[in-house]
Amino acid sequence: MSEEPPTVHVIDDDPSVRDAIVGMVNSVGLRVRAFESTQAFLHERLPDGPNCLVLDVRLPGLSGLDFQNELKKTDTPVPIIFITGFGDVPMTVRAMKAGAVEFLTKPFRDQDLLDAIAHALDQDRVARHERAELSTLRQRFDSLTERERQVMTFVLAGKLNREIAAQFGTSEITVKVQRSRVMRKLQAESVIDLAHIAAKLDSGASK
Amino acid sequence: MQSTAFRRIAVQTSAGLLAIAIVTAGCYRIRLGLAAPLCLDLCAIVILSLRGSFLTSALVSVVAVGCLDYYFAEPLFTPLILDPLDSFALALFLVTSAVVTTLVSRLRSRAEQLTLRDRELQERMAEIKRGQDQLNLARVNRIMLMGEMTASIAHEVNQPLTGIMANAGTAARYLSRDVPDLEEVRRYLGLIVRDGRRAADVISRIRALAKKAPPRSLQLDLNETILDVAKLIEREVHVKQVALRTELASDLPSVPADRVQLQQVLLNLIVNALEAMNELDSGPRELAVASGRTEFNEVFVEVRDCGPGFDPGDLDRLFNSFYTTKSDGMGMGLSISRSIVEAHGGRLTAAPNVPRGAAFRFTLPVEIDERTASSR
Prior knowledge:
The structure holds two protein chains of two kinds.
Chain A: E1 7-11, H1 15-27, E2 31-35, H2 38-43, E3 51-56, H3 64-73, E4 80-84, H4 89-97, E5 102-105, H5 110-142, H6 146-156, H7 161-168, H8 172-185, H9 191-206
Helix pairs in contact in A: 6-8, 7-8
Chain B: H1 2-29, H2 35-51, H3 54-72, H4 84-175, H5 182-210, E1 219-220, H6 222-232, H7 234-239, E2 243-247, E3 255-256, H8 259-278, E4 286-293, E5 298-304, H9 333-343, E6 347-352, E7 358-365, H10 370-375
Parallel strand pairs in B: 2-4
Antiparallel strand pairs in B: 1-3, 4-5, 5-7, 6-7
Helix pairs in contact in B: 1-2, 1-3, 2-3, 2-4, 3-4, 4-5, 6-8, 8-9
């Protein structure tokens, strides 16, 4: 899979802070894009690679915390590092609970922000990998026929081919063929493997 | 007023005469000597002098002496007195009643004076207390405004500070490379200087605001004051997504005024306007601050917002102390602003803005130069 290099996105309306963060991230050799507002950020297409967002809590219009909630609703959530002038405890708790990677109070040590960025990019790399895996699995699952899905459910419930055949009123041979087709389409090597795949699909669907 | 005083004297005099008549008639009927009616009459006169005027008491005393002489001193029913003891008693009566009446009336006038002075003093004290309350409230209002501004100012200092720290780290990183990238180092040092200057600007603005009040006679450029205040609340305006427009007259004469107090008035009006537009869901968020001259040799400053405005029925109450439409307001801002403007010889008024919102406007007189005034 060809992947773009990691990108750090900075949203801060203050030029002093924005320029400084851009320079800092650049100096460690990471790609960085800066935005004045959340709207400007939303206009841009997110690069197809690990991303993270350095976000000022206090922004004109939608506040950073509200924007975090908006972003969570999209299908490509980005890990967020909050920076704020006056971080009170409730605000920090709210941001962290909503899944922020880090909450830094200005002025912060530059190493703290760089560490947080590295952490966030790793987190997104893992999340991207999981998302990609899940979407492959889903594609494979979607290729199953209605009957194959039913067979899969019974197999996972621990039913024998004979019992499944009796349930559908078909021959055992037919069930065997359908079952091997399920295994092949989902690229499962064993019933245990199949159970893993089903569990992943389940947790993906509940997200 | 005069007729009631006259009536009172008449009533008291008749009451005194009646008392003398009753005493005389009563004592005469039961055939008592001179001593008893003399004492009773004296009592009546003392009581009368406590309540009534000096004139009444004197008149009643003379009548009493006449009665006593006529009915009780030998020979009876003549103005003559045979017994020297009787003459002496009557003379003593007259002197005693005169002394008592004089003393009592003097005491009464002294007491009246004291009551009057006491009332005056109490009024004066209440006035001083009112003035102090007003002063205290003005201070509280100023402190509250400063508090509101402090959060904004702290943020303004913190921003460049964040930049400085981050840029210093970046410059250090470029320096510690195997081949130091001096071009980049120079660039980030430049940014540090820029941010440092920005922080220093903020500090000098706060210092200007917090400075002790200069003498009132200072000639003040109102446009400059408006720009100072606009700079102070720049951040609030930005965060609240308000477009601040200044329409300043270029030929504005300076006015004699206290800079800090006028800053406070302007801050009050602008913060009010910003808060009025806070609850706005749609429509433009425009705040205009205008200055200019009136035809009466005055300068004016006007603050217009696009908020919900005010009910014309509330116009009278708008400037009252403790009248507020804000949940957390004290209702002092406008009242204090008006007293500040009026102390400068100006007026602060409110009117609806077109097409919506409120417009607050204050005027200040331009002092005529004394030399040109006398040469006319």
